[in-house]
Automatic annotation (TrEMBL):
InterPro entries: AhpD (IPR004674), AhpD-like (IPR029032), AhpD_core (IPR004675), CMD-like (IPR003779)
Protein origin, superkingdom: Bacteria
EC number: 1.11.1.28
Active-site residues from the entry: C130, C133
UniProt source species: Nocardia mexicana
Protein name: Alkyl hydroperoxide reductase AhpD
Alphabetically ordered keywords of this record: Antioxidant, Disulfide bond, Oxidoreductase, Peroxidase, Redox-active center
Purpose of the protein: Antioxidant protein with alkyl hydroperoxidase activity. Required for the reduction of the AhpC active site cysteine residues and for the regeneration of the AhpC enzyme activity.
Family as reported in the entry's similarity comment: Belongs to the AhpD family.
Domain Carboxymuconolactone decarboxylase-like: 98-169
């Protein structure tokens, strides 16, 4: 199992992350597509090749091809949108009258349940630190009838995967360092 490989690769100082990853992989709050799509999208957002590779392998066995691609699509489009909208927010409204002019068709037609895609976008936005996108996706999810518990669980997944990605990158970097 790939998540098992990921847990086993974590050093002793990341024991809390290992335990959190174990518990989140058994989540009963998210359905299987929500959980594995969130794991995959957030793994892509960490930019940790090893984290993405391990989670993607297991996600491919769990998700449909459409859901797998949509989760990666959520990570990709949020990579663009989070930078744009976070940067625009820093400019305190001075550019609010200008059109973004960015293609974002996957948001309107993700190929899976739109609420699931919004959930993955929400989780990725938390990793990428875009308050505007995080709030917008949370609002859309609540309007679609998604429970606070599901939204909060996706946030937990994002935080755990982000921490795991950081620990994995640290371990890999230090393995080749002369410390």
């Amino acid at each position: 199992m790939s998540v098992e490989n990921l847990k086993n690769s974590l050093p002793e100082y990341a024991k809390d992350l290992k335990l959190n990853l174990s518990s989140i992989a058994r989540s009963t709050v998210l359905n299987e597509q929500q959980l594995w799509g969130t794991l995959l999208a957030t793994a892509a957002a960490t930019r940790s090749a090893s984290t993405l590779r391990e989670i993607a392998e297991e996600a491919a066995d769990t998700l449909s091809a459409e859901a797998y691609n949509a989760a990666l699509g959520a990570a990709s489009i949020m990579g663009m949108n989070n930078v744009f909208y976070r940067g625009k927010a820093f400019l305190e409204g001075r550019y609010d009258d200008l059109r973004a002019g960015l293609r974002m068709q996957i948001i309107g037609n993700p190929g899976v349940d739109k609420a699931d895609f919004e959930l993955w976008s929400f989780a990725v936005s938390s990793i990428n630190g875009c308050q505007h996108c995080l709030e917008a996706h949370e609002h859309t999810l609540r309007e679609a009838g998604v429970s606070r518990e599901v939204i909060f669980e996706a946030l937990r997944v994002a935080s755990i995967v982000a921490g795991v990605g950081q620990a994995v990158q640290t371990t890999e970097t230090l393995a080749t360092a002369t410390v």
